[in-house]
UniProtKB/TrEMBL annotation:
PANTHER family: TRANSMEMBRANE PROTEIN 135 (PTHR12459:SF15), TRANSMEMBRANE PROTEIN 135-RELATED (PTHR12459). Belongs to the TMEM135 family. Residues 316-437 form the Transmembrane protein 135 N-terminal domain. This is Transmembrane protein 135-like protein isoform X1. InterPro entries: Tmem135, TMEM135_N. Keywords: Membrane, Transmembrane, Transmembrane helix. It comes from Senna tora. Its main location: membrane. It comes from the Eukaryota. The lineage of its organism: Eukaryota, Viridiplantae, Streptophyta, Embryophyta, Tracheophyta. It is found in: Endomembrane system.
Length: 511
């Protein structure tokens, strides 16, 4: 419960030692995102807060709200959720449309047909932006509403029932808010998103297990330093093999992404697939025609053992990797610019307007350049490793494709350490979905279409775990995620955690 005694102020929820700047011992660890407070009155979200008997920020540390303040919190959370959903989806759609318009100028022969496609793309992008805005806005509003409702049913914060509900109300509220996903389309399956959120929930749960005395030993292998790169290699083996051999197992949006950044025409991929599968070639003439359109004269041997001439024509393997790397980097830049720019506008909006816009923009540009290098190296190394393996063993088959795409994940080492786990989990979710789809095509598992809206069930379970960790185990989150979640859901951070308080402390210590 809230600290009691003369040192605690009910007016603002802060103890007098934290209000006094010169006597404050409150410290904030920005890397781990928790308070390490020497002040016993302010110790709210530190490691001790993770025990089941310690109240959460959602339940105890918030100042009692009047009814209109509760309603205001719900409305603001919904509006901020809508802003994030519409901003992220709209930003990605905008860059996609701009790229489409640029391609239309280059392909003047298809200008009329492309104009119709562009109009349809704009309408579709607007609908998707609105749907995702409503999805996240409804999720945030529903979670806050249920959180406030259960708190109201529990009575006063010192009531026994309130103490009991505080431990699980975020879990229940997160599960109830999960079906908001249906607002993106009643017939639209979001298996990839659901599996990704499940992976995020699993990571948080594993962090809780690592710091637990009961499960700490079991979860210790999860702390392996380079586990994220290993997961990326494992995911790449499934994803890139499916990209070449069975694209039907990949989600349509992700398949389009791979086809764009894989940099190869469908006829080339079909030729590699035929050779790897041991089937007779069906489109060698189409491949030769494709290269002639690029002013490259290629004569393909129907009895070839390795597909290098199919993949890169008359170029050597080394020349192809270098030229492909430059082209891939140009394709990657428009992908990562919104990924860095939009969150910066949301999270660091005040800093952009007031204090250090140049520093933030510089970080955005450096991050964009670094991530673009990762994606371009990732795509070019996929062809490099497969070509190398085919050349060494002088054969091409399905196991060679699987093994050749495994080391592609090493490119993740280019990325910043804090982003590696995010990318590897995202790819792992795609790989898991593709793997089970391939198993279903092979007849070893039922098709996912037979299980109605399993994605909503998985997503609701995952959001329940994530929101429970947010309320009860805040230290397992990185500080940047806590900042976003606190901004959306309106949970006031402890006094020592506010930027203004930290700035004052740094100022005092500097003098």
């Amino acid at each position: 419960m809230a600290p009691s005694g003369d040192r605690f102020s009910e007016a603002d929820g802060r103890c007098s030692c934290c209000i006094d700047e010169e006597k404050s011992d409150c410290l904030y660890d920005d890397d781990n995102g928790f308070i390490d407070a020497k002040c016993s009155h302010s110790r709210r979200s530190g490691p001790s807060a993770s025990s089941s008997t310690t109240p959460s920020l959602l339940s105890f540390d918030s100042i009692p709200l009047k009814e209109w303040e509760k309603l205001r919190r719900i409305i603001i959370a919904s509006a901020k959720g809508f802003t994030i959903g519409a901003g992220l989806k709209g930003g990605l759609a905008l860059f996609s449309i701009l790229a489409r318009l640029q391609r239309r100028r280059a392909l003047s022969s298809l200008r009329k047909e492309a104009a119709v496609t562009d109009r349809e793309a704009i309408v579709l992008a607007a609908k998707e932006t609105l749907r995702y805005g409503l999805f996240l806005g409804t999720f945030a509003g529903t979670f806050v509403s249920m959180d406030e409702l259960i708190a109201a049913l529990g009575g006063h914060r010192r009531h026994v029932l309130f103490l009991l509900t505080a431990r699980w109300r975020a879990l229940l509220a997160g599960a109830i808010a999960g079906p908001s996903m249906l607002l993106t389309g009643l017939e639209t399956q979001h298996t990839s998103l659901a599996v990704y959120i499940l992976m995020r929930a699993a990571v948080l749960a594993s962090r809780c297990g690592i710091k637990s005395k009961r499960f700490g030993g079991i979860c210790r292998p999860l702390t392996w330093k380079h586990g994220d790169i290993f997961l990326m290699c494992l995911s790449s083996s499934q994803i890139l093999s499916a990209y070449i051999l069975k694209q039907e197992s990949l989600p349509s949006s992700y398949k389009s992404f791979l086809n764009k950044h894989g940099g190869k025409d469908a006829v080339i991929l079909q030729g590699v697939k035929d050779l790897a599968s041991g089937l007779p070639f069906t489109n060698l003439e189409a491949i030769e025609k494709h290269y002639r359109e690029m002013d490259v004269n290629v004569q393909l041997d129907p009895n070839m053992k390795v597909p290098c001439s199919i993949v890169h024509g008359n170029q050597s393997c080394g020349e192809h990797v270098l030229s492909f790397l430059l082209q891939a980097y140009k394709r990657a830049l428009p992908v990562y610019l919104p990924v860095y720019l939009i969150p910066a506008l949301i999270v660091h909006r005040q800093g952009l307007l007031k204090r250090w816009p140049n520093t933030i923009l510089a970080k955005v540009l450096v991050g964009t350049a670094r991530s673009s290098l990762f994606l371009s190296v990732y795509c070019s190394s996929a062809w490099m490793w497969t070509c190398l393996l085919f050349r060494i063993f002088k054969t091409c088959n399905i196991p060679m494709v699987v093994m050749g795409t495994f080391p592609t994940g090493l490119a993740l080492a280019i990325e910043k350490k804090s982003r590696r786990i995010e990318i590897s989990l995202y790819c792992l979710a795609r790989a898991i979905e593709s793997f089970f789809t391939c198993m279903a095509y092979a007849g070893y598992m039922p098709h996912s279409g037979k299980i109605k809206r399993a994605d909503v069930v998985v997503f609701s379970l995952s959001t329940a775990i994530i929101m429970h960790c947010y309320a009860q185990e805040r230290e397992v989150f990185r500080s940047k995620y806590l900042n976003v979640l606190d901004w959306v859901f309106g949970v006031p951070p402890p006094p020592c955690e506010t930027p203004r308080r930290k700035d004052r402390e740094h100022g005092v210590s500097a003098h």
